[in-house]
Amino acid sequence: MKSLLNKSLLDIDQLNPNDIKNIIDEATSLSEKRNPMTKKYLGGKSVLTLFFENSTRTRTSFELAAKKLGSDVINFSLESSSVKKGESLLNTIKTLEAMKFDLLIVRHADSGAPYFISKNINIPVINAGDGLHAHPTQTLLDIYTIQKKLGTLKNKKISIIGDVLHSRVARSNILGFAKLGATVYINSPRTLSLWKNKLFESNNSKVIFVDNIYNALDDADVIMPLRIQLERQKQGNIPSLREYSKYWGINSQKLKIAKKDVLIMHPGPVNEGIEITTELVNSDKSLINEQVKNGLYIRMAIIKSILSEICK
């Protein structure tokens, strides 16, 4: 698999369906291995994680993925870095480039920061989430999770519910799901929406914005409520969390019009009782823990495909 060799992964739109298939095939192969030889894939390679935003799931997943492949992993600590002393992002990454790392994994609060970094250094960059823009590895692990359960995304109805406006996951998932043939329904409060976004409308007719949540849930194969970003609600985009839960929270009653075997996904972390009930989080319909598990193998596959010349 050479599609990503020595290249950066900045968003899902740089990948075609065959690239996605190759990454998923590699993730499947890695998930089936019970062989310590995986630790020798990237022996001698060094990976630096640059997380300018707090993260638990994504950062830990990337670190574990790189270590399982045998690379050395160094964490960039923002609190003790020169960034806190006023050093520019450009000077910081140029300093780090001089240390000869083989791969940078970057999360940043500003949309476009990984693109800026990638243009200014000669080291591959993986975007681990940038502002409100993109989260490509989350999309790939979500695609992988759906395919493992349904076999394909083609002609499946996938409904994304909630705070789309502030969700980089939603933006990447809309592009990725539609690219593989799913019809993506989007429902959210108007104040938290990308209603009739011209990018999605002009590029793909399989993206459908609906006002009524029941139009999104009706006969859905997969439902993905998004996290209400509590830190952003001081903006007054919703009257209250209680009202949001009443109208957009996913519960067993609302699921009655979806398919009986509907799958529930969530990018995490989950605000139980707000965007989804605890009952559904723990139900047999939930793939939330599967997403976390599959994320490890997807990130192993991506790192391996970027750094390892033995990928076939």
For the biggest β-sheet, the strand order reads 7-6-5-8-9
CATH superfamily of the largest domain: Aspartate/ornithine carbamoyltransferase
Number of domains: 2
**SSE sequence, one letter per element:** HEHEHEHEHEHEHEHEHHEHH
What is the overall pLDDT average? 89
The helix-and-strand class reads alpha/beta
Question: What report would you give on this structure?
Answer:
The longest helix has 20 residues, at 288-307. The chain contains twelve helices and nine strands. It is globular and about 55 Å long. Helix 5 crosses helix 6. It has a five-stranded parallel sheet with strand order 7-6-5-8-9. It folds into two domains: 12-135 and 292-307, Aspartate/ornithine carbamoyltransferase (Rossmann fold, 3-Layer(aba) Sandwich); 136-290, Rossmann fold (3-Layer(aba) Sandwich). Helices cover 38% and strands 13% of the residues. With 312 residues, it is α/β, with parallel strands linked by helices. It starts with 16 loop residues before the first helix and ends in a 5-residue tail after the last helix.
Summarize the structure in short:
The chain has 12 helices and 9 strands.
Topology:
Elements: H1 17-32, E1 46-51, H2 57-68, E2 72-76, H3 89-98, E3 103-108, H4 113-120, E4 125-130, H5 136-150, E5 157-161, H6 168-179, E6 183-187, H7 198-203, E7 207-209, H8 213-217, E8 222-225, H9 241-248, H10 252-255, E9 263-264, H11 278-281, H12 288-307
Parallel strand pairs: 1-2, 1-3, 3-4, 5-6, 5-8, 6-7, 8-9
